[in-house]
Amino acid sequence: MANDKIELTNTWDKVFPKSVNVKHQKVTFKNRFGILIAADLYVPQKISSEKLPALAISGPFGAVKEQSSGLYAQTMAERGFLTISFDPSYTGESSGTPRYVASPDINTEDFQAAVDFLSVHDKVDPNRIGLIGICGWGGMALSAAAIDTRVKATVTLTMYDMTRVNANGYFDEEDSAEQRDKKRRSLNEQRITDFVNNTYEVDGGIVDPLPNDAPEFVNGYHNYYKTKRGYHSRSLNSNNGWNITMPLSFLNSHLLSYINEINSAVLLVHGDSAHSRYFSETAYSNLTGDNKSLMIVADAVHTDLYDNLDKIPFNRIELFFNEYL
């Protein structure tokens, strides 16, 4: 079982200002793998009813709850929802060793554990629980919605399918058995190195300084994670990145295989100029039912939906959850 001893920061260390209209506190809960998840709980100052609709929120991939997911959680709490933003297993203030690994199974479970927590909270209506997943945790949220019938509605923002991008590369440009075999060989050689050194090397934080020929989306990541706008000391992307062998489980999985069986409502939101737009478009094509929708935000790149309040369609998100929760 994972080590339960974690340290929670009690001071406000978010990259966004604290709202006077929301009550905030730190909470923890265990997932099914015994990992203790650290989360921020946001409750409206003025509660309109005895039991509230609730949202579990996480992402982007490599971020912490003090960044984008916390902004979403606080904003939705201002709009009348009880919300939690959480650090996924092995990252941020959550427990789990070795540090800085991810898994399609465990990280789907993180969302389900958040639903466990919300389902028994004394201010939550357990029949009105939804999810918000940002970037790589958009895919995890869809995976959770496919397995967890307690989830009544899901919103993804600027969604990534982490199994697809790890197996096929960006824009599916590495989608061959030979290219995947090369990745497997490199990652398994790294396993031997890590085993011999009794440590886990990390890599993959946002490149800094930026090379002159960096793609537009890499510039966008740098502008968020490496500047005052979004830098956080616990964020993997802001610092040294993931355990190098992290992609192994994603190379061997298909995260979104059963999203066509999601019966609850889904809203996919993506920027029209986002490099990652194809992930949401593919997911939408695989969803079924008349309660699924795809919203394309004009003049928005991938990272605009992290924190750009002029681009994030909070009114649409609120209307969606009010309709389906």
Summarize the structure.
Helix content is 33%, strand content 21%. It is α/β, with parallel strands linked by helices and 325 residues long. 48% of the residues are buried.
Q: How many alpha or pi helices?
A: 10
Shape: globular
Strand order of the largest sheet: 1-2-4-3-5-6-9-10
**Biggest pleated-sheet summary:** 8 strands, mixed
N- to C-terminal separation? Answer: 35 Å
Number of beta-strand segments = 10
Whole-number radius of gyration?
A: 19 Å
Work out the strand percent. Answer: 15-25%
- SS-derived structural category: alpha/beta
Q: What do the pLDDT scores average to? A: 96
Percentage of residues assigned to helices: 25-40%
Which stretches are low in confidence, meaning pLDDT under 50 for 5 or more residues running?
A: none
String of helices and strands: EEEHEHEHEHHEHEHEHEHH
Blueprint (SSEs and pairs):
Layout: E1 22-30, E2 36-44, E3 52-58, H1 68-78, E4 82-86, H2 104-119, E5 124-134, H3 136-147, E6 151-157, H4 162-168, H5 177-197, E7 202-204, H6 216-225, E8 241-243, H7 248-251, E9 265-271, H8 277-286, E10 292-297, H9 304-307, H10 314-324
Parallel strand pairs: 3-4, 3-5, 5-6, 6-9, 9-10
Antiparallel strand pairs: 1-2, 2-4, 7-8
